[in-house]
Design goal:
The protein is an alpha/beta fold and 397 residues long. 45% of the residues lie in helices and 15% in strands. The protein has two domains: 141 residues, 3-Layer(aba) Sandwich (Rossmann fold), CATH 3.40.50.10860; 155 residues, NAD(P)-binding Rossmann-like Domain (Rossmann fold), CATH 3.40.50.720. The structure holds nicotinamide-adenine-dinucleotide.
Length: 397
């Protein structure tokens, strides 16, 4: 459970609110039996509605990976409850997980998405759950969903030609980069042009974060992915790295010095951006972390134990529900525009992400300074206050 006693105490949360937030509102475990790619006899999938006070719709991405579990999907749905509330969006927290290889070919993923819609069509058509991409899924899989529902507002993160939002693909990275810049200025009292950054993950979030930070003058000195890493103390050329990665499917072996993927956490850099998977900064490696600022691009990359240890040694951690919320902020815009039929430009999307995240950053910072609490606890507290207000107005408390 994300909400701990300390946060509850900080905001004097009512018992019933804590009880309602401690468990998901609704959990669907289903199995794909007919729409299966070669080599699969059955595929397990989950759809979790964590808290529906601010929804439906419940919003959160679809993760496709062999490691997906019901427990992980539930934790990610819980995270979405707080992220959506923190951004003050009219969305409950949801998440879907499909237990299948994230590296399957496109055609196989299309078959799976067809099966996914077949099983939860009602949830999608009714607008109860509005998916978006997450690890292992992207715009193509969102297009698969639209091809089945024929409803633009039933899914976000679609390609632009079918009602996707220009700038949605970059939005999470845009938000992470915005928060890195603001945090460097606030906590390191530096300018981005004097800042070194290491990024774990070079998928959607990691690669766009790198591009936007490089654009602002930051030096990206190390990048890793699931297969390995690359390092250059003079700064990695991100456009080159993107080109290499598009050809080879990995950043490993691209110029510079090769880097063991576990070593990214040990580098003496100003900022560390975990932008791959959960639980990567843990009790096992936290003692080696030298960066004094960690900005969470991924969802739940820091375990509770590591979070405490980082706090103790004075490192600042900007939590996922704030740092990587650019994607869901843009998704809200996409969903609204799909309903109204209006269009937008990439720059407008970037401005919306930037303005929303900076406004919430200031709110969280203010809470943290007044209550002498970490940014994670403060972000959770601000989000929970909004949830309590909503649950109360619906007569739940
Ligand atoms: P992605 O599938 O596009 O990319 C994932 C990247 O992580 C790849 O480079 C992959 O090689 C790397 N990776 C996977 N396992 C790894 C490992 N064990 N060690 C090192 N690198 C590893 O996924 P994404 O959409 O960029 O999502 C990344 C993270 O950001 C996830 O935690 C996701 O939940 C979170 N997130 C994504 C979005 C979004 O809009 N895509 C929004 C908010 C949060």
């Amino acid at each position: 459970m994300l909400l701990d006693e300390e946060v509850a105490r900080l905001i004097n949360a009512p018992e019933k609110a804590l009880m309602l937030l401690s468990e998901p509102d609704r959990v669907v475990h289903f199995r794909l039996r007919r729409h299966l790619p070669p080599g699969y006899k059955l595929i397990h999938a989950y759809l979790v509605y964590h808290n529906t006070a601010r929804g439906p719709p419940c919003k959160g991405g679809i993760r496709m990976s062999n490691d997906v579990t019901l427990e992980e999907t539930t934790q990610l749905a819980e995270l979405m409850t707080y992220k959506n509330a923190l951004m003050d969006l009219p969305f409950g927290g949801g998440k879907a997980g499909i237990v299948a290889d994230s590296k399957l070919l496109r055609a196989s993923k299309a078959v799976i998405m067809h099966g996914f819609v077949h099983e939860v069509r009602h949830e999608l058509i009714s607008g109860n759950y509005v998916p978006a991409p997450d690890l292992g899924t992207g715009p193509a899989e969102m297009a698969d969903i639209f091809s089945e529902t024929h409803l633009r507002e039933s899914v976000t993160g679609k390609p632009v030609g079918i009602g996707g939002l220009p700038g949605r693909a970059e939005a999470t990275g845009k938000g992470v980069a915005t928060i890195v810049e603001r945090s460097v200025e606030e906590f390191l009292k530096k300018d981005l042009s004097n800042t070194t950054v290491a990024v774990q993950g070079f998928g959607n979030v990691g690669s766009w974060t790198c591009s936007f930070l490089e654009e602002k003058g930051a030096k990206i000195v190390a990048v890793t992915d699931v297969d390995g890493g690359t390092m250059n103390l003079n700064g990695i050329d991100i456009a080159e790295l993107k080109k290499y990665c598009a050809e080879k499917g990995t950043v490993s072996g691209c110029g510079g010095k090769s880097l063991n993927k576990e070593d990214i956490f040990k580098l003496d850099v100003d900022v560390l951006v975990p932008a791959a998977i959960g639980g990567v900064i843990s009790g096992d490696n936290v003692a080696d972390v030298k960066a004094s600022l960690i900005v969470e691009g991924a969802n739940a990359p820091t375990t509770k134990e590591a979070d405490k240890a980082l706090d103790k040694k004075g490192a600042v951690v900007v939590p996922d529900i704030l740092a990587n919320a650019g994607g869901v902020v843009a998704s809200y815009d996409e969903w609204r525009k799909a309903k109204s039929g209006s269009k937008t430009k990439k720059e407008e999307t970037f401005n919306t992400v930037r303005e929303t995240l900076l406004e919430v950053f200031d709110e969280v910072l203010d809470f943290s300074q007044k209550k002498k609490a970490s940014l994670r606890k403060s972000a959770l507290a601000v989000a929970t206050l909004r949830l309590i207000d909503t649950m109360s107005s619906r007569g739940w408390l």
